[in-house]
Amino acid sequence: MLYQRSSQLFAEAEKVIPGGVNSPVRAFKAVGGTPIFVKSAKGAYLYDEDGNRLIDYINSWGPMILGHAYEPVVQSIIEKAKLGMSFGMPTELETQIAVLAVSMVPNIDKIRFVNSGTEACMSAVRLARGFTKRDKIIKFSGCYHGHSDSFLIQAGSGAVTFGTPNSPGVTAGTAKDTLLAKYNDLGNVKELIEANKNEIAAIIIEPVAGNMGCIPPVKGFLEGLRELCTANGILLIFDEVMTGFRLARGGAQELLNINADIVCFGKVIGGGLPVGAFAARAEIMNYLAPLGPVYQAGTLSGNPLAMAAGLAMLQALDSDREIFKRLEEKTAYLGDGIERVLKANNVAFTINRVGSMISVHFDANPVTDFKTAGNGDNETFKKFFHGLVAEGVYIAPSAYETWFITDALTYEDLDFTINAIDKVSKTF
Ligand code: PLP
């Protein structure tokens, strides 16, 4: 495949955009080479500026669960755009998507829309602090909750890929209120709670971690967190920016049968437009301005185009009772196929998978937390990544990322991908 035009475009971008990209994970720093510039995308495929077609396993890092340029979403955006782009006044559409989201997700009464997953998590933590009148939070190493200051402490994927888990610019004052725990280690959380009695407002967690590869919670871990939170007056925040409307209609809460106190959304909920949201029972949400004292706002929050895209997406997911089962089956098929060919080619690997999230780690030992996620062989990953691109398959340019399976993928696409992996892994 040729990447002449992508290289030229990247050189031009680098002159005016730091690193040539508007989000670091898009750069090829961890794998070498220059980013591929996209011209368009439809269904399961990306079409780049050099005319190459790639099967897409990133899907805009999650939102495109039904494939790119999904027709009902495209149509609803076009129709709404004709009626005006933004008003800064309430619209009926906001209530419609809120009603649908609240009906799909367990254990929430009210939802507030924002513009990104970062904003959702940042606002959820402020709300938890206001509600509990406590300052500290617990987050887990390798979990990413957006780029707000309090979260940039061992923050997984992008931050790890670039070797800056603790970003300069985050003050010591902010960092001191974020306590770090090990994912899947309940004892560690207990110790932190003991050492900070009545000071912890919230525990924030990706219920299925997706920013150090895909890491499922071990049995009893989330149940234990729930109990600890309830016993100690701590709010449990599920960051479902990745898992929400992806693992089940009601996200990880439904799949794993655990109730969180506050739930954060992003990605799928916006159908590909910039949307985030956070939700909780009324007692907590009523703490938000204008009803309550915790301030949170946004000029473009609830933007009509974004709400139209999100509503069309949620309606599609709500009306298709087989969708999450179908996605799971496709992901299992892919996982089994990858396992078969990597084994046949004597590659050391571990595959983690939950619903339509899957990750391949080049290490034979179980990958259960941030530390074990770091044991993968990055040199093999680089060959894997570039080999797959050459075969027409695009995965995230970092070993710390989950692949997102979309319903637009056919079994032929999956077979094509498995064959490509077979071919590439013979060259390791
Ligand atoms: N939370 C999780 C679990 C995420 O994966 C991400 C982004 O990847 C975020 C929060 C931040 O969302 P955004 O990039 O929309 O700000």
Automatic annotation (TrEMBL):
Asked whether the UniProt record includes rRNA processing among its keywords, one would answer no
**Family per UniProt?**
Belongs to the class-III pyridoxal-phosphate-dependent aminotransferase family. HemL subfamily.
SUPFAM superfamilies membership: PLP-dependent transferases
The pathway entry for this protein reads as: Porphyrin-containing compound metabolism; protoporphyrin-IX biosynthesis; 5-aminolevulinate from L-glutamyl-tRNA(Glu): step 2/2
Matching PROSITE patterns? AA_TRANSFER_CLASS_3
Q: What is its EC number?
A: 5.4.3.8
How would you classify this enzyme at the top EC level?
isomerase
User: Where in the cell?
Assistant: Cytoplasm
Catalytic activity reads:
(S)-4-amino-5-oxopentanoate = 5-aminolevulinate
Which PANTHER family does UniProt cross-reference here?
GLUTAMATE-1-SEMIALDEHYDE 2,1-AMINOMUTASE, GLUTAMATE-1-SEMIALDEHYDE 2,1-AMINOMUTASE 1, CHLOROPLASTIC-RELATED
InterPro entries to which the protein is assigned, alphabetical: 4pyrrol_synth_GluAld_NH2Trfase (IPR004639), Aminotrans_3 (IPR005814), Aminotrans_3_PPA_site (IPR049704), PyrdxlP-dep_Trfase (IPR015424), PyrdxlP-dep_Trfase_major (IPR015421), PyrdxlP-dep_Trfase_small (IPR015422)
Q: Which UniProt keywords apply?
A: Cytoplasm, Isomerase, Porphyrin biosynthesis, Pyridoxal phosphate
Molecular function as annotated in GO: glutamate-1-semialdehyde 2,1-aminomutase activity; pyridoxal phosphate binding; transaminase activity
**Native organism taxonomy:** Bacteria, Pseudomonadati, Bacteroidota, Flavobacteriia, Flavobacteriales
Needed cofactors, names only, are: pyridoxal 5'-phosphate
| Pfam families listed in its UniProt record | Aminotran_3 (PF00202)
Relate the assembly described in the record. Answer: Homodimer.
Q: What is this protein called?
A: Glutamate-1-semialdehyde 2,1-aminomutase
A GO cellular component annotation in the UniProt record: cytoplasm
| Recorded superkingdom | Bacteria
Question: Which residues are recorded with the post-translational modification N6-(pyridoxal phosphate)lysine?
Answer: 267
A GO BP annotation? protoporphyrinogen IX biosynthetic process
